[in-house]
Design a protein that fits this description.
Layout: H1 2-15, H2 19-26, H3 30-37, H4 40-44, E1 45-47, E2 55-58, E3 67-74, E4 80-85, E5 92-96, E6 113-117, E7 120-121, E8 133-134, E9 138-142, E10 148-153, E11 158-163
Antiparallel strand pairs: 1-3, 2-3, 3-4, 4-5, 6-9, 7-8, 9-10, 10-11
Helix pairs in contact: 1-2
Length: 165
């Protein structure tokens, strides 16, 4: 239980939040805590607190289980990205943080906002002839006053769909 308590105090001190951070972190799943403190994620990546919130929850792969997307920094390069920890299986997908993903590249240091995007038909924001139909929820990541991208599961892996510029 100590790693979870340590994570709580670290998150609260970095984000400057108190009771709100406590409520939010009590909702972090055991899978998330295990991947951060003991799994392969802990060896090569550390949690990044460069955005608030530093993690989001949703069913990103459409399997009915709650997944957790957490901001991470690759220890060896300092590159930023997102780790998605799949609920039920504990499998981890790294997006950015040294692993290239579409127009997002391999370093998401440019990203200054993110949110969960609902599953279903993607809204037409560009002149794209075909729009994906999301099997699960997606991540909408962006840079203020610039472009954004939708990160979604295509049934095999996470892919990038450009939104805007």
């Amino acid at each position: 239980m100590l790693p979870g308590i340590t994570l709580f105090f670290l998150a609260a001190s970095v984000s400057g939040q108190t009771s709100g951070a406590a409520t939010q972190l009590y909702n972090v799943t055991e899978t998330f805590e295990r991947a951060i403190s003991k799994g392969p994620l802990a060896k090569d990546y550390e949690v990044s607190f460069h955005l608030n919130p530093f993690y989001l929850r949703g069913d990103f792969n459409g399997d009915g289980e709650i997944d957790v997307a957490v901001l991470v920094k690759q220890r060896s390069t300092g590159k930023l990205g997102i780790a998605i920890i799949h609920g039920g299986t504990s499998k981890v997908a790294i997006l950015g943080a040294g692993a290239r993903l579409g127009n997002g590249g391999d370093d998401f240091e440019w990203m200054d906002n993110w949110q969960v995007y609902p599953k279903g038909r993607v809204a037409r924001w560009t002149d794209e002839p075909s729009l994906p139909r999301l099997q699960g929820e997606a991540l909408l990541v962006g840079k203020s006053e610039a472009a954004s991208g939708l990160i979604y599961w295509d049934g095999k892996r996470y892919v990038w769909f450009q939104q805007g510029d």
